Target: Lipoprotein
Amino acid sequence: MRYKACLIVTLWLIGCVQVDPKETAKNTVSTKPADTLPEEKKQVQDSIPVPKYTFEEERDTLGLLDSSVNGIFLSDPKSVLKEIGPIDPVDIPGECECATVYNGDKSQALILYRAYGGRKYEYDVYNVKYSSSFNKRDSSSFLDVKEFKTENGIRLGMSEADFINIYSGKKWEVSKKGGVKEYTFHNEYETYLAVYTFNNGILVEFRIGYDNS
Model:
């Protein structure tokens, strides 16, 4: 009889101290609301250091202004061979190691500067100007085109207003002396340099390429 009484009392005590399963889960497992996870992830991402140049490059130097003339791309021997054919540079003392190509009527010249240490037919600077501005060089290389122009439509004889309209969002270094005005863009990360020269509001020369200075 005493044994039965003790058993009943023991079972009653066990029933009194039982804990709600939900309460048990709450006390034994530490969780955070799901809606806080994205915020924590963002804080972790924000704490990862990002090189400064990444943002500057996207803002100021994303892509090149011009990288080709009549389908001839900078530092691309294949496009040189395709559009011009095999053309070797000539060493002009005190000036350059370059090749000269004329347009159909020989009124314009495209001067290609050999890439330092580059492959055969690799040229990394292109200079377009009126051929009357320098002594015509002997050259058997011609392109059957009326004029030289870049992939963005930059060409000799265009107005300064049309040029600005094409590159309205770019930052320029502008210099002016008399009627001559130069727009310079320098991409220091890609070592790319572009210079556009206007005389009385008309483009008379431009130079694009990789600045190895």
